[in-house]
Amino acid sequence: MNPSPVSFPARARRDIVLSGELLDGGGRPCVVSHPHPLAGGDMDHPVVVALWRAAARAGLRALRYDFRGVGRSTGSLTANSPLATDDLGGAIDFLGGGEVLAIGYSYGARVTLHALRAGEAIARAALVALPTRLPANRAAMSNLILGRPVRTEQFTDSPDLALLAPLAHALRTFAGEQDPLVDAADLRARGVEPVLFPGCNHFFSRRLGNQRPLEADLDALGAAVIAFLKDAGGAAGG
Fold it and tell me: Where would a tag sit more exposed on the chain, N or C end, judged by fewer CB atoms within 10 A?
């Protein structure tokens, strides 16, 4: 199965052309959204690639794409830009405009959650490393990068928490047990039971200061995500 380069416009800005790759497993459409562009996130992130390939192997028509301003995608995002839900909307339109299965990682999970809340045609959403809290100072950012607590770190609650409870039936969250941005108790308080991966941080790596996950952990994450998505009415078969 060879990937096919594709391009398509953003939902509300037809002048913005987004770039992606399609792996067609022959079944239901599935879109994978990547981490924050301003932190170096793109569709080539190893977690994104692993989930995209797992979806295609499971028989899904899997699309990964770059948000605007990333890679070959035109346009731009800034720290003050709204969440890129129009980019995800463009990807859904490209896949045919009907219901899709959606996977989002970190910032991509936030975009996917907000699109689902807005009534986008998403049958089920796998939210990987969805932050329940956000870094509020440099020490908290150090925790995220190094993977160890810093005494002076400070966090703020994510505004996304309020969106979870009404959508709990349509989504599942997946996170590293050592991810400083994900508080499992916050998720459970809103009716969402997270799937946790022992020893893994926000990047699904097990090593301090390292953002490269092990293949075994990527395989386990992919298997768990696909198992959830395939419960959506026989996802792989269309």
Answer: N
The token duo for 22 is 């399609």
Residue 217: closest CA among 235, 194, 195 = 195
222, two tokens = 């992919």
pLDDT score recorded for residue 203? 92
pLDDT tens track for 173-214: 999 998 989 999 999 999 999 999 999 999 999 877 667 899
From the candidate CATH numbers 3.90.1300.10, 3.40.30.10, 1.25.40.10, 3.40.50.1820, the one assigned to the domain spanning 4-232 = 3.40.50.1820
Q: Give me the half-sphere count of Cα atoms (radius 13 Å) on the Cβ side of residue 123.
A: 18
- Sheet with 4-9, side-by-side order of all strands: 4-9, 17-24, 61-65, 29-33, 100-105, 122-128, 171-176, 195-197
Q: Are 230 and 23 in contact (CB under 8 A)?
A: no
Bridge partners for 101 per DSSP? 30, 124
Q: What is the mean pLDDT of residues 47-72?
A: 97
pLDDT value at position 232?
A: 60
Quick one: tokens of 62?
């899997």
Residue 193: other Cβ atoms inside 10 A: 11
